[in-house]
Design brief:
Layout lengths: L17 H5 L21 H6 L3 H8 L20 E4 L7 E11 L2 E11 L8 E7 L1 H4 L4 E6 L5 H7 L27 H11 L6 E3 L30 H9 L25 H11 L21 H7 L24
Antiparallel strand pairs: 1-2, 2-3, 3-4, 4-5, 5-6
């Protein structure tokens, strides 16, 4: 099962080697399938650890978590935003996972529906559906947590005045977020299988949740310019990849917080902090983006405090060890 059916042998990859993780060139990534770079089965452990949607988004985007997607081909993992469905029913709630590269440039990655068969259930049945362009038709994954008390499920079904809609997108990141390079698929597979050896979602062709009455706000949203190989691309995506068979050169953040054209290397720690301080108020100001400024709120302090001291068994290190271009296995 799972969404990675065409992988090569990965048993002898050394995760502690910078060379193994970061010496690849853009051409090594040209043939990577998008579906192989975000393992839907391993979303489950992150949901289990999250008490709310904001924390779930934080865990998804940690540099030693499950995200290795690079749809826009810049050599860095795409930021995955999470938003609650505006559409709700008495017994169903939903989350949309997507990447936004401009005001109207959105690629949905997956949607998650939480279903309570009875009103007094502690938890919920969960159905995760992969986007058809990335994963193909009927990419269903599910688990039954009806009798488990989970923080994120309790939050989703609780009465609230505000529902979480991610304010973050490409080049407008949380203050403590650090961009990180993607790795080749075998390295990624080894990493997530070591971090999350027991995926809790099961792939199925016949999900137990047969009637979904709520709709994702980003259903049907896709971007034309995707460099990764797709399972069921649109006509525009096929045409773009045909005309752009190779990814651009790796880039780095310049002092102005924008991306330049040199390979990523050592970058002064103070400069990186200065870049991030400015990035938290960054808005779409390239020619291809609107001029409307969107100010990102500060990350949830409670989430950050909760994660301190939990180490790598949690799947992230809360930002430590990311400075100066260090790899995931650097000491």
């Amino acid at each position: 099962t799972g969404c990675n059916t065409d992988q090569t042998e990965t048993a002898k990859i050394d995760l502690n080697s910078n060379e193994a993780a970061f010496s690849q060139t853009a051409s090594n990534l040209d043939d990577q399938w998008a579906r192989d770079e975000f393992d839907l089965q391993r979303v489950g452990p992150l949901l289990e650890r999250s008490k709310n949607v904001e924390e779930f988004e934080f865990l998804l985007n940690s540099d030693d978590s499950i995200n290795n997607l690079d749809l826009n081909g810049d050599g860095y993992a795409d930021y995955i935003s999470v938003s609650e469905f505006d559409d709700r029913s008495d017994n169903q709630r939903g989350l949309s996972l997507f990447s936004r590269f401009g005001p109207d440039v959105v690629q949905e990655i997956a949607s998650i529906v939480f279903n309570r068969d009875r009103p007094n259930a502690q938890g919920a049945r969960i159905l995760l559906t992969g986007n058809e362009q990335i994963y193909g038709d009927n990419a269903y994954y599910e688990t039954n947590w009806l009798d488990r008390s989970l923080g994120i499920v309790s939050t989703l079904f609780s009465p609230r005045d505000n529902y979480y809609q991610s304010p973050y997108y490409y080049e407008n990141y949380p203050a403590d977020y650090q961009t990180y390079q993607v790795v080749e698929t075998p390295v990624y597979r080894t990493r997530i299988e070591q971090l999350f050896p027991d995926p809790v979602f099961i792939q199925t062709a016949n999900p137990t949740i047969t009637e979904v009455r709520i709709v994702s706000p980003y259903r049907g949203k896709w971007m034309d310019k995707v460099f990764s190989k797709l399972a069921k691309p649109t006509k525009e995506q096929i045409e773009f990849r045909k005309n752009n068979p190779n990814r651009p050169q790796f880039v780095k953040f310049d002092n102005d917080g924008r991306k330049g054209h040199a390979p990523k290397g050592d970058h002064d720690k103070d400069e990186r902090k200065h870049d991030k301080d400015r990035d938290k108020d960054k808005h779409f100001d390239d020619d291809k983006f609107d001029k409307e400024k969107v100010k990102a709120p500060k990350p949830n302090k409670e989430v950050k405090d909760k994660d301190k001291g939990k180490g790598k068994d949690k799947g992230h290190d809360n930002g430590k060890g990311k400075g100066k271009g260090k790899g995931k296995g650097d000491n």
